[in-house]
From TrEMBL, chain B:
Gene source species: Bradyrhizobium erythrophlei
Keywords: Cell membrane, Membrane, Transmembrane, Transmembrane helix, Transport
The keyword Transmembrane belongs to this UniProt entry's keyword annotation: yes
ABC transmembrane type-1 domain ranges (all copies): 65-255
Gene3D superfamilies referenced in this protein's UniProt entry, alphabetically: MetI-like
GO cellular component: plasma membrane
Subcellular location per the Swiss-Prot or TrEMBL entry: Cell membrane
InterPro entries, per the entry: BP-dep_ABC_trans_perm, MetI-like, MetI-like_sf
Stretches that traverse the bilayer: 9-26, 71-90, 102-122, 134-156, 177-203, 234-255
Superkingdom classification of source: Bacteria
Protein name in the entry: Carbohydrate ABC transporter membrane protein 2, CUT1 family
Length: 300, 268
């Protein structure tokens, strides 16, 4: 490691620390405070200890059953979109042209969905999927598939998943493309001389080089899909029934809809804890990968 | 060797898949409501700009765009300004708690907005910033500052240390070195970081909607409310949607050569 130890560096980090602490620690303290209390309106609060947490983690209670149902739903959703978006993103990245004006054109088109406000993404798919006025819904119904995302659970899920694939596959593809671009031509020439097959080039050269960016992609996609709110909310409103109510939607329902501050706060803390744990696992894996890479460089 | 068989077909299908829903939105925005509801036309048969004219002449609509741009710009400026020195510190020095601090920052990037919606509402009401662009700009710092630090750290690490040392030997003070030498060297990195701050602040709805009520209402909130109140005015909704895509598309065009690297957070 060629970094020098210098405690004065804290002065440079201080502004970031203050800004983020103001936005993160203060509100989190409020949440902790609420999670221990019960309110009956009129700003009167009563001490409730760990009552809310007990209820939250007990699947037989109302709050607990809602929490676990939305948690499993959300994990299932994250798993499905990762299974689709990561392989698809890699394939798209491998299909990108190498040079010329078409590269810029592809990049711009692919980045487009990422820059659309999330509620507009919802609106786009709402309009696109409606059986009466949407191209997708209209076509599907005309070729004999009975499709209606408002009333059918399966259709609602399919719409939300296809929408997420539409919205975020580009991110995975762009990351992989950046990884691929960093591979020097010499590697490919060496592979050609060795007579390596297309598949061997992929597994021995391209995949290892993409490992780091793929980790970032999986981390970002998992986190963002785990806290997804706006897009499914606009399209399905969490329905039909509760079939597409993910954790964030449930949380906002409890916090801003019913104003059940104690329950919402307890749910928030558990939710945050899950995210921090997953984040920590990814971070450790990523930094270890970085250390290995540096060690390999040092040895060479 | 780089490419795979059938790549043109795969890529074309993917791009069509991306563009089709957007085309449909544009198509809708150019139709009258009568045409939308009555027939299924692949392109507008009686194209009209009426929906757009309504947005540009109705103050409650176009101020939504101005409000959104206000907090996005404030947020981008704050995020970059505080993130630059921190990125330098993380890239060059080891100090007490640096790894923990970095992880803590990262974990904030991942914190769900839904968790913070209500506490932010309390906090910004208490300090009198509720319903101002500042509230939203500061709230968005929670995920944009860590991101900016992360991206810029990658770019600063790409600058050889010898440059710092030479500058200090030449008698540059730290602030002068920072502004005159380092910042021009990582100009593309600053551009990329600004792009990402812009992007994530522009697309966020939940916090922006929770922290504003009347004066600073962002366009995304105007869209959800006006539309549900007036029944479903599909043409107007589509036109408003198209207009929210345009700023993003413009920004992408300027950074198109750095997009890929930026998405890898400067770490390729």
């Amino acid at each position: 490691m060629d970094k020098t130890i210098n405690q004065k560096a804290w002065l440079l980090v201080l502004p970031v620390f203050l800004v983020v602490a103001f936005s993160a620690i203060l509100p989190l303290m409020t949440v902790v405070n609420y999670s221990m209390q019960d309110t009956f309106g009129n700003n009167q609060f009563f001490w409730n200890g760990v009552g809310w947490f007990k209820e939250l983690l007990d699947p037989s209670s109302d709050l607990g059953s809602r929490f676990f149902a939305s948690l499993w739903r959300n994990l299932f959703f994250s798993a499905v979109i990762l299974l689709i978006e990561v392989p698809l993103g890699i394939v798209v990245a491998l299909s990108m042209p190498r040079q010329g004006w078409s590269v810029a054109a592809c990049l711009v088109i692919m980045a487009l969905p990422l820059l659309i406000p999330w509620n507009v993404v919802g609106t786009i798919w709402q309009i696109f999927g409606r059986p009466d006025i949407g191209l997708l819904g209209y076509t599907l119904n005309h070729i004999g598939i009975n499709y209606n995302y408002v009333s059918n659970e399966f259709d609602a899920w399919a719409t939300v998943i296809v929408m997420d694939v539409w919205h975020w596959t580009s991110l995975v593809a762009l990351l992989c493309y950046a990884g691929l671009k960093s591979i020097p031509d010499a590697y490919y020439q060496a592979a050609q001389i060795d007579g390596a097959s297309r598949w061997a080039v992929f597994t021995a050269i391209q995949l290892p080089k993409m490992k780091r960016v793929l980790l970032i992609a999986v981390l970002l996609r998992f986190m963002d899909s785990f806290m997804i709110y706006t897009e499914p909310f606009v399209v399905t409103g969490g329905g039909p029934g509760n079939s597409t109510t993910f954790i964030s939607i449930e949380l906002v329902k409890i916090a801003l809809g019913q104003f059940d501050l104690g329950k919402a706060a307890a749910l928030s803390l558990v939710y945050n804890l899950i995210i921090i744990i997953v984040c920590w696992v990814f971070y450790t894996v990523m930094t270890n990968a970085g250390v290995e890479r540096r060690a390999a460089k040092g040895a060479a | 060797m780089h490419s795979i068989p059938g790549r043109r077909l795969i890529l074309s299908l993917f791009l069509v898949f991306l563009l089709l829903p957007i085309y449909w939105l544009v198509n809708m925005s150019l139709k009258t409501n009568g045409e939308i509801v009555s027939t299924m036309n692949l392109w507008p048969h009686q194209p009209t700009l009426e929906n757009y004219i309504r947005i540009f002449t109705d103050e409650s609509w176009y101020t939504g765009y101005i409000n959104s741009l206000k907090y996005v710009v404030i947020n981008t400026v704050i995020s970059i300004a505080v993130a630059l020195p921190a990125a330098y510190a993380f890239s060059r020095y080891r100090f007490l708690g640096d790894k923990h601090l970095f992880f803590w920052l990262l974990s904030n990037r991942m914190a769900p907005a839904a968790v913070y919606a209500l506490p932010f509402f309390n906090l910004y009401s208490a300090i009198g910033l509720f319903d101002t662009p500042w509230a939203v700009a500061l709230a968005h710092c929670i995920f944009n500052v860590p991101l900016a630090v992360w991206i810029l750290e990658g770019f600063v690490s790409g600058v050889p240390r010898e440059i710092d040392e030479t500058a200090f030997l030449d008698g540059y003070s730290f602030p002068r070195f920072f502004v005159k030498i380092l910042m021009p060297l990582i100009a593309s990195g600053i551009g990329v970081a600004a792009f990402f701050c812009f992007m994530f602040s522009w697309v966020e709805l939940l916090l922006a909607r929770t922290l504003t009520s009347v004066d600073a209402k962002p366009i995304s909130a105007v869209m959800t409310r006006t539309v549900s109140a007036a029944g479903m005015d599909w043409g107007l909704l589509a036109a408003a949607g198209v207009l929210t895509i345009i700023p993003g598309a413009l920004v992408i065009w300027f950074v198109r050569n750095y997009i890929a690297r930026g998405f890898a957070l400067g770490r390729v």
